[in-house]
C-alpha cells in the first residue's frame, strides 16, 4: 500500500515530520485545523474506547457505536484508517510494538467492512506524539509510515499531527498539544477528545503493556463486528518479577521508571499503573485465572444506559 502524499504517489516514504513538511508543507495547515478545534470530553454511551496496543474497526450503521477514540497518547501515536466510500473506520493506539501487523490488520478490516459499498479511497490519519528528548515519537512516526508504505495498495495520508507539529514549547519543556482523539463514525469527523471512562477491564487490558510474553507485543482487535460486541482476550502474559516491590514504591518513583515521558503524563497515570500492578499481582497467570476456558470476555451495549455490560456468549 504505497502512501499517497497530497495526491502524489510517494517513491520514498518520509522518515520524519520535518521531511514530510519539506516536500509537502500543506500538512501543517491540516494539523493546525485539528489543533484549533475544541476538545471534547466524551462519556461512555456510544463510545468504543481503544487502549494502548489495541485496535478496532467499525461502520457508520453500527447502532452500538457512535464514537471510536483513544487518549493518553503522549509519546504514542493514534492511527486512523478510513474508507471514504463506506465510512468504515479503524483506529489503533500504537507505541512501537506490533506496528507492521497492526497496519496490515487495520487495512484488511476496513476493506472487509467496505465490501458492497460505493468505491472510495483509503485515508490515513496520524495524531499524537511530540518532540520528546528521546525521540520516541519521531522513531514511531517513521515506523508507522514505513509499515503502511510497504503494503501493496494506495492509502492517502490526509493528516499528520505528530511530533513537532503536535508540540508546545512554552515554559521551555516540550509538551504534546493533543493526546487524544475521537472519530464520529457517522459524520466522519475527527476531533481532539478525552475519555474519563475507558471501558471495562482496563487493568487487565493494560497489564500487557507492563509485562512480557508473546501476547504483550501484539496489537489486539477488541471489537467483533459480526456480534457488535466489545471483545477482551483471551491472552496471557508473563509474571512480573518484583511486582510486590513495585507496589511499595512512591508515586514519583513509579512515574519516573514506568513512563517513557514522565514530565507530561496525565494526573491519573500513576493511579492507573498501581491498579494494573495490583491486578498483575493477583493474576500472574491470566490464562489460568482470567481466561480459564480460553474464551474472550464479551460485552454488549446496554440499551438503557449506553454502557458496555458483560454477557455470556
UniProtKB/TrEMBL annotation:
Q: Share an example GO biological-process annotation for this protein.
A: ubiquitin-dependent protein catabolic process
Molecular-function GO term, any one:
protein-N-terminal asparagine amidohydrolase activity
InterPro entries according to UniProt:
NTAN1
For this protein, the record's Pfam families field holds:
N_Asn_amidohyd (PF14736)
An example Gene Ontology CC term for this record: nucleus
Protein name per the record: Protein N-terminal asparagine amidohydrolase
